[in-house]
Design goal:
This protein is an alpha+beta fold. The protein is about 40% helix and about 25% strand. Strand 11 and strand 12 form a beta hairpin.
Length: about 350
């Protein structure tokens, strides 16, 4: 009898252990959790494939806090850390920056030089002159005068007007006005990816208003993202991304000034002081958000004649542009990855 009882107990114990094991496995099973934040004037979506809900929430909370700090720190025209830096530079004073701030500013300097200054983070005064330091779009005020534009263009403002002595940042030109609108989202998603890694999350996608960076996959399945038309938001193509990649689009279709029947895009060509008009959008794929963000802006400014050369200078081999005639031009490395392409794209390399 004892042997039978022991046998029954052993069977019950085995069943109990099996149930506990299955429950534990179910608890540890990875699923996609979706989170939304509103920051930088846009909706940020974070999709995470992870097994630990608590760990996931801690990471999202840290990203949210970091993004809110960044939004206030790097705002181009509202009071904050960047306005303090700009006030010092425009008063011909050096300013002590943190190691992290220096790292970011040096990244923007590098990208500006690689782009032949078509991405130019020191033309904040020119952007302000056009009225684009605002959250209220579309603008209906008249454009600035040719004289006002000429005054700033003739100063040939570039990042060469900045220099570092250790962590002391100075400028040669009192008209320098740092504006990181063309690179801030790239820096933000890079920060988010680092935070996720700190929390041992290896599969996620961070999408800041259509500009995104991914790591890993969705349970072994690549992330699927869309490239939209700048004219009517219809689908241009779909793209599968798997692993660590950044996909950024810059365009002149969301924020603009409209006056007397003419539309002026918020992206300014530093060489002319005028809004760009020929290229309506540029999409770039690379590994780092900062690089992709700056490059997408630079390619819009470069135009149909020069975009490929600038992309190559910036180390970008996956890019496409759509011009004002709705023509799509792209690199072979980019075009071959696109699915469900709704327009014909010409391969230029």
């Amino acid at each position: 009898m004892r042997m039978i009882v022991n046998c029954i107990l052993d069977i019950k114990s085995f069943i109990l252990l099996s149930v506990l094991f299955l429950v534990a496995c179910q608890h540890q099973a990875a699923t996609v959790s979706k989170h939304q934040l509103f920051v930088f004037g846009t909706l940020v979506e974070i999709n995470i494939w992870h097994h630990d809900a608590k760990q996931t929430q801690q990471a999202v909370d840290e990203i949210s806090a970091t993004f809110n700090v960044m939004h206030h720190q790097w705002h181009a025209w509202k009071p904050g850390r960047l306005s303090t830096i700009n006030q010092a530079l425009r008063a011909n004073q050096s300013v002590l920056v943190t190691t992290e701030e220096a790292e970011f500013i040096k990244q923007t300097i590098t990208q500006a030089k690689l782009s032949d200054h078509m991405f130019n983070p020191v033309i904040g005064e020119l952007i302000h002159l056009w009225g684009f330091h605002t959250d209220d779009y579309p603008l209906l005020t008249p454009p600035p005068s040719k004289t006002e534009i000429k005054r700033l263009v003739e100063q040939q403002l570039t990042v060469d007007d900045l220099w570092f002595d250790g962590l002391q940042l100075s400028s040669h030109n009192p008209s320098v006005w740092l504006d990181f609108g063309g690179i801030a989202k790239g820096y933000a998603v890079d920060r988010a990816i680092r935070i996720l890694a700190k929390h041992n999350i290896t599969n996620a996608i961070v999408n800041a208003g259509g500009d995104l960076r991914s790591i890993g996959s969705k349970g072994g399945t690549p992330w699927r993202v869309a490239i939209q038309s700048p004219s009517d938001w219809s689908l241009v193509a779909e793209l599968l991304i798997d692993g660590d990649e950044a996909v950024f689009t810059s365009g002149n279709y969301q924020r603009y000034k409209e006056f007397d029947g003419q539309r002026y895009a918020h992206i300014i060509d530093p060489s002319t002081g005028l809004p760009v008009s020929e290229v309506v959008s540029a999409t770039v794929i690379t590994k780092i958000g900062v690089d992709a963000d700056a490059a997408a802006t630079a390619l819009v400014v470069a135009g149909s004649e020069n975009w490929l050369e600038i992309a190559q200078q910036m180390g970008i081999d996956q890019a496409l542009i759509i011009n004002d005639q709705q023509q799509c031009l792209g690199t072979s490395a980019m075009i071959k990855r696109l699915e469900n392409l709704s327009i014909t794209c010409q391969i230029l390399n």
